[in-house]
Every structure is written in C-alpha cells, then in structure tokens.
Write a structure and sequence with these properties.
single chain, mainly beta, 31-stranded mixed sheet, 22-stranded mixed sheet, disordered N terminus
Length: 682
C-alpha cells in the first residue's frame, strides 16, 4: 500500500515549497532538533516492512563510558544489549547511546535507532558478512567513506553523530565491472521485480512524499557521505515523480553507478523519472545511470552535477578506477551528468535541463547498441569544458530540438552514430514508439516543434579511436563552433548534412572538416610527439578511388563557407560530395602541425588544434564530386586526386592542372591524377 509520509511529517517542520530551505539540517552532525519526529520515521520504516533482529555488540551502550566499553566482558556485553537495546513494535532496534572505543569493533546485526553514535578514532562499526551499513542523521545519509581511494566498499567514519540517528544494516548490492572489480553498492531505495526490497534499502534516507511499491512522488533525499545511491531499480518497474535529490561527496565508479542519484539496471527495468530536481557535487557522482538493457525515461527534470575534490593520492586512470575524464580527449573535469551503459540500454530525456561543470552531459560508454535520445532538452557545460554527448562503441545518440550550450564538443564518437535534427511531430511520435517512451497524446501534443542549436566553444563533432562512427544533421539544426566543425582523428567516418530545411554549419576558424593523425598518446601517462619528415609513399594504396576505411562526407542543399583538409600521413582518403550546395573554400590534401611538438597532460588543450600546409597527396587522397546544382568557388590552392563535375555543376578556379597539364573543366567529366586548383573569382 502506498504510504503518505506527508501525513507522517508535520508540515510546519519543513518548508514544503523550498526543499533547499535553511531549516533543513545540511550538517547532520550539528546539535539540532530533527525536522522529522522520531515516531514519524519509525512509521516510515515499519511501513516498508523492515524486519527485527538481535543487536550484537561487544561493548556497552548507554550509561557506560567509552573506556569501560572497551574492557567490557562478554557477560557485560550481553547485559548491556538486553537493557539498553530493545526491539520495538516498529521492527527497528531502539538503542541508547552507542559508543565505539579505539581498537574496538562493534557489529550490528539489525537496523538500529539511537540519539547518539560515537565512534572513536581507531574504532570500527561493522555489519555481518554480506551486509553493509548506512547512517542517517535527521534523514541525511552521512559518515560513510570509501575504505581507500580505490576501495570497493565503505565504512562509517569516526566521529560523533547526534540527532535522530538510524544505522541501517542492509544486504550488499554487489556490482561488477571489468570482471575482477566488484563494488558493494548501497542505496536509499532498492526496487526489484516485486517492488521495494527493504533488505537492500536504507529507507531512513527518504523523507516526505509518498513511497509506494510501484511509484513514489515528492520525496526528498540528501547525502553527505561517499558512494551512496538514491534509487537503484533492478529488473523492476517504477515511476518516480518530483524527487528532490542533493548529494554532496565523492562517488567511486560511475560505470556501475557507485554514487549516482538514480540507477536503472537490467533488461526488465522500466524506470520513469518525471519532474526530478537532482543536484550532485562530487567526483564521479552522476545524476542518472541506465545500464544492462534498462529503459530509463527522464521527463521535465533538472539534473546538475558539479566537480568534486579528487583524493590526494588519485592518479589519472582509464577503466574501473577512472575518476576524471581522460585528458587525451582534450578535456578536464571529474563528473559527468548521465551515462547509458551495457547492451541494448535505452536512456531518453524529454523536456529536461541537464548540465555538468565539466567532462560531459549525456554519455554512452562501454555499450553495445545503447540508444540515447534527447527531445527538446537544454544541455549545458557550466564551467570550462566538456562534451554534449559521447557516443561510444555502437551507440545511437539522437537529439531532436535540443540546445547545446557552452560545450567544447557537441559530440565525441568512438564508433557510435549521432543525429541532430528537429523535434517534428512525426519524428517524436516515431521515437515514442521505438524507444517505448509511452508519452501520452497530451504530452506529445505539448512538445513544441523546434530546431537543434549547438553553440560550441571549440569543436563540433570529433571522432577518435574505435570504428569512428557517423553524424547526420538535418532540419533546421545550427552547428556553430569556435573551431573546427568536424574533426576526424585517423578513423573511418561518415558525415551527412542536409540543408534543405535550413541546417547550417558555421566554423569560427574556417575549418569545416579536418582529417589528421591521432594525437591521443594512448594512456594518461603518455606523451604525444609530432611525427617529422615526409611519410613514405604506400604504392599499394589507391588514392584515386573510394576505399573501405575512408572518410565520406556529403553535403546537400546548403551554403558552406570554410575548408576541407585531409592531413593524414597514413592510408585514408577524403571523399567529399556536394549536391545542390555552394562552397566557398579550399579542399585539399595537407600536412598538419600542432603549435607544440610534444603534448602531455599539462598541454591537453593543444590536442586537435593543427595548422595545414596544402600539398600534393601522398597517402591521403582527396576525391571530390561537385554535383548538379553545386558551385565550388576555390578560395586557395587545392590539391586533389580525383574531381568529378556533374552536368549542372560548377567549379570556379583561376587555374586547373592535372598531372602538370593545364586543363579546362568540362561538366560531366571525371579527372584523376595530381590535380591542382588555384583561387578563382567568387
């Protein structure tokens, strides 16, 4: 039965209109009165069905000093347990003050309530094997800390905890990543196939609102401890409406959601989040995680994550110990707002605002065909630099009617496909079905038709590693970048831009597409060193016709101002087709150079920034088709290996030579060889 905790908690003890009200005890260790009556919290725990159990302690409780507790005999311990801890009708053990002395281990076997918990330095509050502790003070989870920077579980820190103190003894929630790494997660609410599972939940961290078997609304969750989750939905169906979640403190591994506000896990999971307000501060303390085939839908929500303070002994990593964005991407930061992981996972964001200080906003990672969809969302980097989306592996990332604000990259892809377009009625309705979003007719009708607008402080889309990937831009999408629009680092890529509905691509540095060698050194401790000298000619590589691993770019019905360069040293062609398009710019093979010849972590901002020297192709063919209705106004010397000009196509150049012979361009003809064009009249 759904429980109404609004009736349990007197309204005059909490500002219902402002969940960040100053009356809320943000410092749970202060001597303050609880905003929730003890009886009210017991009622919430009882309603959730927490079972009773014996309390096992090797030291004394109330009325015994810490020193005497450390020397108490087994008989005294049994007596103290019997007289100072009692099982109440709420199925929670009620205890007097609990003291844990230096060198002492106190093991609790069941959830315990007290007004004072004191753990001396060197003392340990423990749970039985297979169980894990969480402490709340006046409803705020607090005191838990990872056993080490790279630890897999948490312990309760030494200190004094006063107020309405609930020590939850819950089953561990083990989650494995990279095989050998199993993290012991804990969460306020664990939802399984049959609903809430109290044995895995620290329900005392839930305040206000209604908490039911299949849904909850208007809940408040606060955490100042490390690596604590809000909701973990595993192979269950749940709807969470208007939760207010604010977590401060570091997480541990965002690949498994260790420290996330909300997690949906498992192919049978459908987790709907509507009207959420999530504000997390901490290293790898993300807002929303979807993983292992879950379907997570976020609507009408605000999700914000903020960088935390890295542990002093942290060193940059990739993989399970990664707590910062790999600098090899040309970025900084230690928290990303959302992630979709695993096989066939779906994560959908509708009419929401998602932001992060740095690193990234919407991410897919370690996935197989995960699908990330955003419809009419604001996606923002609020500090220095980060990406709007990351399309890993075979991910499919779609953005309809979204606004990308102050991103350093609109997208980074290591093999995924990325789509930017309009939130048309037809497109949204199709995704509503294919992604099983289940928006109602009223919700669909309320979504305005709008364009995607991308404002980037650096690049548009970058491809690095993996199988490259693709980008498709259509509708009225506007891609506005301070630097290069499309940055390709030694991978196969397909770029498709259709301007027939008004799409625009506007690079601030005049580079529409840049092909280059990868400048990723391969590891956080690596150093990129610029190659020197001319690359050796590979006579077996065909620079005159399209090859399997080439970069293929097609632009239709659009006006372009800028340049295309193939700066590869190894075997890869640029295949560019213009259809109904006007281009004012250079298309050429080139040699690239960074501003500095050696780049390590300290110079990460130099990655991807190169200058071009136009030169004849060596292993980097440039194959251009100027289709019917297209005009290429050559604005600088351009070196090609193949040029096709269709009937109705125009190339405006001062001079054209093929293998050193002056040539007059004839529409309907293909030219191959060492082709050089010089600037003509526009």
């Amino acid at each position: 039965m759904e429980q109404d905790s609004a009736n349990l908690y007197p309204r005059n003890t909490y500002n219902a209109h402002d969940p960040h009200d100053s009356h809320y005890p943000l410092n749970p260790r202060d001597r303050i009165s609880s905003p929730l009556k003890p009886l009210d919290r017991r009622a919430l725990l009882r309603a959730a069905g927490i079972g009773a159990g014996a309390l096992l302690v090797p030291g004394a409780f109330a009325g015994t000093t810490a020193a005497s507790a450390a020397t108490a005999t087994a008989t005294a311990t049994a007596t103290a347990t019997a007289t100072n801890a009692k099982t109440t009708s709420t199925d929670v053990v009620q205890s007097g003050p609990i003291y844990v002395a230096d060198g002492e281990t106190v093991t609790l076997s069941s959830t315990t309530r007290t007004s004072l918990l004191s753990i001396a330095a060197g003392g340990t509050l423990a749970a039985p094997s297979g169980y894990i502790l969480s402490v709340t003070v006046d409803g705020v989870e607090t005191g838990s800390a990872l056993v080490s920077t790279y630890g897999l579980t948490t312990l309760i820190e030494a200190g004094t905890y006063r107020g309405d103190v609930v020590i939850t003894v819950a089953l561990e929630n083990p989650q494995t990543f990279f095989g050998a790494f199993t993290y012991q997660l804990r969460q306020a609410v664990y939802v399984g196939a049959s609903g809430i599972e109290p044995a895995y939940s620290a329900l005392s961290a839930v305040t206000r609102g209604r908490l039911g078997a299949t849904g909850a609304h208007d809940l408040v969750l606060r955490s100042t401890g490390e690596a604590f989750d809000g909701f973990y939905v595993a192979d269950g169906t749940y709807e969470l409406v208007r939760p207010d979640i604010r977590f401060t403190g570091n997480g541990r591994c965002d690949f498994v959601g260790y420290g996330a506000a909300l997690v949906g896990d498992g192919a049978s999971t459908r987790f709907v989040i509507d009207g959420a307000n999530i504000d997390n501060t901490g290293v790898v303390r993300p807002g929303v995680i979807a993983t292992n085939g879950a379907n997570v839908i976020v609507k009408n929500s605000c999700i914000a994550t903020h960088d935390g303070v890295l542990p002093s002994d942290y060193t940059a990593n990739i993989g399970p110990d990664m707590m910062t964005v790999p600098w090899m991407l040309g970025l900084s930061g230690n928290v990303r707002a959302t992630i979709a992981l695993g096989v066939d996972t779906k994560a959908t964001y509708v009419n929401s605002q998602v932001s992060s200080t740095n690193w990234g906003v919407l991410s897919t990672d370690s996935d197989t065909e995960a699908e990330l969809t955003a419809i009419n969302c604001d996606l923002t980097i609020t500090d220095k630099e980060g990406y709007g989306t990351y399309a890993d592996g075979s991910a499919i990332d779609r953005f309809l009617g979204c606004r990308f604000n102050h991103v350093a990259f609109a997208a980074i892809s290591t093999g995924g496909s990325v789509y930017f377009g309009d939130s048309t009625r037809e497109a949204v309705a199709a995704l509503n079905t294919s992604q099983d979003i289940q928006l109602t007719p009223a919700e669909l009708a309320a979504i305005p038709v709008t364009n995607t607008v991308i404002d980037s402080t650096r690049f548009g889309v970058m491809w690095a590693q993996g199988n490259g990937g693709s980008v498709t831009i259509d509708g009225g999408t506007r891609l506005r970048t301070a630097e290069t629009s499309f940055l390709v680092k030694a991978v196969k890529v397909t770029v498709t831009v259709d301007g027939s509905q008004g799409a625009q691509v506007q690079p601030g540095n005049g580079l529409l597409l840049q092909m280059m060698e990868t400048d990723d050194p391969g590891s956080p401790t690596g150093v990129y060193t610029e190659p020197t000298g001319e690359p050796a000619k590979n006579t077996g590589f065909d620079v005159y016709t399209e090859q399997t691993d080439d970069v293929v770019a097609g632009f239709t019905n659009i006006d372009l101002l800028g340049d295309f360069y193939n700066g590869r040293r190894a075997d890869q062609n640029l295949v560019l087709t213009l259809t109904g398009t006007r281009l004012d710019g250079v298309i050429s093979a080139s040699a690239t150079a960074h501003a500095i010849s050696s780049i390590d972590a300290a110079e990460y901002e130099q990655l991807g920034r190169v200058t071009n020297t136009m030169q004849a192709a060596i292993n980097n063919g440039v194959i251009v088709t100027v289709g019917s209705g297209s005009v290429w106004n050559v604005t600088g010397t351009s070196y090609l290996t193949s040029l096709t000009v269709a009937e109705g196509g125009v190339v405006s150049a001062d001079t054209v030579s093929v293998d050193g012979t002056a040539t007059q361009i004839t529409p309907g003809t293909t030219y191959s060889g060492a082709i050089v064009l010089t600037a003509g009249a526009s």
